[in-house]
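Supplementary Text 2. Reproducibility record for the structural model of the 113-residue chain.

All settings were left at their defaults, and a single model was retained for analysis rather than an ensemble. We include the record here because the model underlies the residue-level annotations in Supplementary Table 4.
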Amino acid sequence: MHELSIAQSIVDLAEEQARNHQAQCIEELELEIGSLAGIEISALEFALESCVKGTMLENARIVRQDISGEGRCGDCETPFFTDTLLNTCPACGSYMVKITRGKELRIKSIVVK
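Retained model, structure tokens:
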């Protein structure tokens, strides 16, 4: 379950940034998670519940933005939505597909007090 180590890293990074800004607590944490990032959302949410206990994030509101997967064909340049990392271009059938969006996993913002 790599979501536990991801959750702990999120907490550590958020606390580090809050301390750097002399904050007393974190009120809100906004995450962006791509549908192709390989993250099991329910497992991450469960892990975050455990990891925030006793931290500056204990009472924080955690907001998640889901990012859809998108790709672009390297042959015909057609952009398209995708729910998998490996697929063919829906326009020409080419395997020269580049994923352009959906692999993100980042802290977008932190609201501190």
